[in-house]
Amino acid sequence: MLNKLQVKEVKRYLKRNKIESRLILGDFLDHLCCMIEQKISEGASFEDSLQVSFSQLPGSEIKAIETYTLKLLNMETSFSSRTSLLATIPFGLFGVSWAYSNLGLECNVPQLIRMFLFWSPMVSMFVLFGIGWINNFPRWSFPAIGFCLLFSMYLMMVSIPGLSDDVLGMWAWIPLLVTLIISLIFKPSIEPIKKIIERIKEEPALVLFALYGVAPLFVMIICDEMYSRWMIIIALISSLILSSGLYLFLRSDKRRTRVLSIIISGLLAVIFTYTASEIYWN
Amino acid sequence: MYGYQITQKVKELSSQKIIITEGALYPALHKLVEEGVLVTESEWVGNRERKYYLLSESGKQTAVTKLEEIKESILILVQLFDLKPLVYDVK
Q1: Which of B31, B47, B51 sits opposite A7 (nearest CB)?
Q2: CB within 10 Å: which end of chain B, N or C, has fewer?
């Protein structure tokens, strides 16, 4: 039986090869230890057994098994460029909407397009939430979860002048409730909720990724009441930074890169927008 | 049984003719756990955790059905290729 240090050596090998999934890490730690113990029982030294076992089961092969297993379980950690780009659409819409708000009042844009530019970012997030529900909430839909929850909470404190002078209160949850009802028609099950919990257990940083969904709205609020053509550039650059963070998070198969990509891009976008707003007001 | 044990058992039962690779075994085990056919139990062996894969109650029924399907497929192949009983009727 391998001692504590020897088991640690095997674990280090798996970590060095970026095996991140708890499921796969546990299976292959025991599997490799069994292989090594088998060789030791046949008379080989620990060092030799270790080297032979690692050459028989290379790290790249274990990583490929991890990727395949997670895909099979609909728990992928990294996605194709196409999926990752599609997931950035709501962020892009926020950018366009924000940019338009800086010149919209001055130019003649048909009412329909105005409405589209104003509502499309929010609607796209709720649509993403619905699609996420139907697909058991893959990672790309997590920003929509964070957005829909926080946006509804934010709306509770907002009043719509043409509608009522009071704040919306519980009425703010109607859009999410409607989205949930529509989603339940397509997938009448609580499986998506279970999957959210499962995925967060597997990688707690997904909570941060869900909160990242509200980042475009947050940077927009920083620039509230600011109308200048220069702000169009700020809006587009800021949205591009946030979209890049989202894209990198979905593309990367390394946990550290994923977390860093959203932290760095989030901070960059906020600092950039805040600095621009300070310059504007001064 | 645990993963490594399954690979060794299959090797032993098939007289070293069938080798289950780790790439075929573990994804299948996890998929079967997700589908509820298998359940897992863990225990500490020395300084590491070992996961045992067991048939669930519903999995036992599924296994019987699947075995029947395999037997039927083998019989169809025997008829198709007109194999002599000697080839497949191994006691």
Answers
A1: B47
A2: C
